Amino acid sequence: MAANLFLPGGVVAMPAEAADRLIASGSGDAALLYLYLLRKNGGASLEEAGSALRWDGGRLTAAWDVLSGKGLAPAMPQAAPPQPQQEEPPEYTAEDISRELDDQDSPFPALVGEVQRRLGKILSTADLKTLYTLYDFLALPAEVICLLVSWCVEEMERKYGPGRKPRMSQIRKEAFVWRRLEVDTAEAADSYIKRQGELRTRESQVLSLLGITGRPAVDGERKYIAAWTDMGFGDEAIRLAYERTVLKKQAMSWPYMNSILRSWHQKGLHTPAEIETGDTAPVRTQGANAPAPAGPGSDRDAGHMTGDIQWMKDFLARQKSEQGGN
Question: What is the C-alpha to C-alpha distance for residues 165 and 197, in angstroms, rounded to an integer?
Answer without folding.
Answer: 19
